[in-house]
Amino acid sequence: MGKHSKQRESRMRATMRGAIIAGAVTAGTVALPAAPALAAPLEIPGVGIFDVPEIPGIPQIAPPAPIVAQSAGERALDAARTKVGASYAYGSSGPNAFDCSGFVQWAYRQAGTSLPRTSFEQANVGAPIAFGDLRPGDIVVTNGGGHAGVYAGGGQILHASTYGVPVGYAPLSQYSVYSIRRI
User: Fold this and answer.
1) Distance (Å, whole) CA 140 – CA 118
2) What is the pLDDT of residues 12-68, one digit of tens each?
3) Would you call 100 a catalytic residue per the annotation?
4) pLDDT tens for each residue of 105-135
5) Residue environment code for 137-156, b if the CB has 16+ CB neighbours within 10 A, otherwise e
6) How big is the chain by its Cα radius of gyration, in Å?
7) CA angle at residue 180 from 176 to 183, to 5 degrees?
8) For labeling, which of 23, 95, 122, 167 is most exposed (least CB within 10 Å)?
């Protein structure tokens, strides 16, 4: 009797599990609504693509927005924004005081990119960009190669300007652009 009662108990548990998983327990029959043949693909990055049935009357969940990785320039701009108000000091490259090229170098270092130290050298890194194609995070070198900043968007650069002026934003239009570079 021990073996048979355990087998019945085991079958009973499996049946109950199946009924609970199906979502309903009835007096003998489990009835599930028939799903229409419509299915929407759902991609889970790193896992795969699945066809998810669309059941009329049940709101559909929108697929997640694609994850767009930030560029090195965007990450550098995010880092640079944290230093607005920091002091200007000739020859300094942070973390508490900066000159122009030291500021650009520090911001890009936070983004995982190594840059040369001077604005003249920074005028030749990465890819050259036309003025009309500027994007936030691009390196803008002005004044014949003697000054550098990070393009912040909206016609503004974020830079360490000069002695007595803290790190901040300035209209790009007030500078003579020498080189624009994108990492």
Assistant:
1) 13
2) 455 445 544 444 444 555 555 554 556 667 777 778 887 777 666 666 667 677 777
3) yes
4) 999 999 999 999 999 999 999 999 999 999 9
5) bbbbbbeebebbbbbbeeeb
6) 30
7) 155
8) 23
What's the pLDDT at 43?
Answer: 79
- Write the burial class of residue 93 (CB in 10 Å: 0-12 exposed, 13-18 middle, 19+ buried): middle
| From 83, 147, 181, 182, the catalytic residue | 147
Cβ neighbours of residue 79 closer than 8 Å, sequence gap 6 or more: 106, 107, 110, 111
d(CA 76, CA 113): 9
To the query of whether residue 4 is one of the catalytic residues in this protein, the response is no
Q: Give me the catalytic one of 80, 86, 97, 100.
A: 100
Select which of 159, 167, 180, 182 is catalytic: 159
What does the chain come to in residues?
Answer: 183
Check if 147 is active-site: yes
For residue 26, count CB atoms less than 10 angstroms from its CB and return exposed for 0-12, middle for 13-18, buried for 19 or more.
exposed
Report the chain's mean pLDDT, rounded to a whole number. Answer: 83
